Automatic annotation (TrEMBL):
<dbReference type="InterPro" id="IPR008250">
    <property type="entry name" value="ATPase_P-typ_transduc_dom_A_sf"/>
</dbReference>
<keyword id="KW-0862">Zinc</keyword>
<dbReference type="InterPro" id="IPR023298">
    <property type="entry name" value="ATPase_P-typ_TM_dom_sf"/>
</dbReference>
<comment type="similarity">
    <text>Belongs to the cation transport ATPase (P-type) (TC 3.A.3) family. Type IB subfamily.</text>
</comment>
<dbReference type="InterPro" id="IPR023299">
    <property type="entry name" value="ATPase_P-typ_cyto_dom_N"/>
</dbReference>
<protein>
    <submittedName>
        <fullName>Cd2+/Zn2+-exporting ATPase</fullName>
    </submittedName>
</protein>
<feature type="transmembrane region" description="Helical">
    <location>
        <begin position="374"/>
        <end position="394"/>
    </location>
</feature>
<dbReference type="InterPro" id="IPR017969">
    <property type="entry name" value="Heavy-metal-associated_CS"/>
</dbReference>
<feature type="compositionally biased region" description="Basic and acidic residues">
    <location>
        <begin position="121"/>
        <end position="142"/>
    </location>
</feature>
<keyword id="KW-0597">Phosphoprotein</keyword>
<keyword id="KW-1133">Transmembrane helix</keyword>
<feature type="transmembrane region" description="Helical">
    <location>
        <begin position="707"/>
        <end position="729"/>
    </location>
</feature>
<dbReference type="InterPro" id="IPR018303">
    <property type="entry name" value="ATPase_P-typ_P_site"/>
</dbReference>
<keyword id="KW-0104">Cadmium</keyword>
<keyword id="KW-0472">Membrane</keyword>
<dbReference type="InterPro" id="IPR036412">
    <property type="entry name" value="HAD-like_sf"/>
</dbReference>
<feature type="transmembrane region" description="Helical">
    <location>
        <begin position="172"/>
        <end position="190"/>
    </location>
</feature>
Amino acid sequence: METANAATVKRKVLLKGLDCANCALKIENGVQKIEGVRSCSVNYVKQTMIIELNSTHEEEIMGFVRKKVNSLEPDIKFISGIKGTVPKLSAHSHNEASHGELVVKSKPLNHEDSYNTSHNHSHDDSKDNVIDDSHGHGHDHGESGVKTMILRLVASIVVGATGMIFNLNGIIGFSLFIIAYLIIGGDILLRAVKNIIRGQVFDEYFLMSIATIGAFVIGEYPEGVAVMLFYQVGELFQSIAVNRSRKSISSLLDLRPDFANVKIGDETKQVNPEEVRVGERIIVRPGEKVPLDGKVIDGHSAMDTSALTGESVPREVASGDDVLSGFININGVLTIEVSKTFGESTVAKILDLVENASSNKAETEKFITKFARYYTPVVVIIAVLLATIPPLLFSGATFSDWLYRALVFLVISCPCALVVSIPLGFFGGIGAASKNGVLVKGSNYLEGLNNVKYVVFDKTGTLTKGAFKVKAIVSASDWNQEHILLYAAYAETYSSHPIALSIKEAYGFDLDEHRITDYNEISGHGIQVTFENSSVLAGNEKLMQSEEISFVKPTEVGTIVHVAINHKYAGYIVIADEVKDDSATAIRSLKQMGVKKIIMLTGDNKAVGEAIGRSLEVDEVHAELLPQHKVEELEKLDAKKLPKEKIIFVGDGINDTPVLARADIGVAMGGLGSDAAIEAADIVIMTDEPSKLAAAMQVAKKTRNIVWQNIVFALLVKGLFLLLGAFGIATMWEAVIGDVGVSLIAVLNAMRVLKIKPEIVRTS
């Protein structure tokens, strides 16, 4: 079905009702085996599946995918909508392909459209356009599901307690315990039977069914009921915790606007943001979210940008300023001219990046996936051996005793704690990073930040503001500084070069073109002009030398514009790029976090580059580089590092695309609203602050700590109970409490990721 070089598309599917990590794992593994499917990633937290598949047979493959999901989990609703946009070819990092290889990549899918054709953005499940016809057991306990489960728990306890309190023996007692068992565990038994028929044997339903039925076989009726009851209580609490976590993550990214006030003549009409076209004007009142990207054409206000940038200080905007969707208007009324449709807006891109981040799984997640695949069958085999071999080998060993130990062994073996909490931890980490103004495109990149030992910065626009300013005016004759700036500004009247613009900005007055004549731009040297009958020369050393004018060698570092008036040297102007306010903080923080070497690459001249490097205390500076030379410097560094060490390149995301692609992790600085930055980088810092990189690394380290706390805790407790069960010390009651308790604690611990707040110490 699949041709060698077939184009691929991405499809997003909503798996409504999926709230089980084991179920997500089965679906992911099953779909990946379908011919024509390049990759599949299931996010049980968001109940979504992202599939990359052969575009030639797209609908046919999606039919197979639907059948596979229905066969694996028939109670889950498969809701598929429109497909992703046409894929782009882009050279990306060797995380995805070998150096220089072209990788097929789809543009991000729209957050809602992929599975909601009704354009309802309220996220109200009751308004979904798909009828819910599932009645089987699931892990998704909604409000009505919680009430139903509580009633089942109470009924089971009452019936089972009746049998215990009155000590009813014989058929009556047995019948009461069977009724209590079926009330609380009938759905588990039914699901286990269905899964066995479909060839899915080793899952939690099978484990709980075989363990509790075994308890009845050996006459431990109360224990069989109690184990199933504890299991269901644990599942209920775990589901509530996961749903709470899901809502917490969603609240972190609560950027989606509910409406837009379109201005029509003297009136406004409230419409869906997706209906607004480019060029239309919208009104944003105090307290409302800006629904679409645009430019303010009337009004002024303070904007809360914290949802996008993590910054608490409001941003003042007025007529002529650009605003982005997701900003919240604080006080004034603004009229905004829309510059992008909703699908191309900043909010849509941010939501999509975070939604689809689960497609790129961390190595820890991949390990646990493989671990869970083999762990449960191995434990079941050991349990069978534990029940059968000792009674055959040891005299006095009874089959019922060792069968009970084997059942305890089975109860504790479920890997839910790991399979649930680890993806939840990484997804929460991505949400926490987003809240702090950093978009991470996958948990693999978030995990990779823990191994960063080399950070390579671009200079202009990354460590510096990328805006040239006049830093000094040095007079070398009778001319004063004001006159030197005046003549230089008029010499640059017609130039749009950044250097010329900085001189005219420093002058600060309107330029009257009628005051100049004989304008002559000398390529590679500067400008010659007549200003009110005075001959003016403004340019570099080469201009002074060619005109045989004696000039002063500057001691300052920066771009120098020499000025001569009537063939007599007047002085020079020093122009330099400004270092960002928190660049020094960023460098210091990265070194404190264990980064071995910080390097700055720049196309600027050596003197300027080295001066900025010294002021920021970077370890190495490589200047006067073209983009291909920057790649070469990165490859030299890559050859020296250890295999597990990572190199980050931080650039402005526009002219640094080749280096961003070549680095282990490419970080786009100041990428808010920049299509080029979002497309090229693995991580996008949504503000112009280099210190956000250190903040992202702090989030990554704390996320890893919490994830590994769960791994170690779950394995230790389960290992302990497996040993206690094997030696007959632990009862089945204790085993099930241990199992659900570990899962619940791991989920609650994973939720701590959402509260991560990076601590970056600012320098004065």
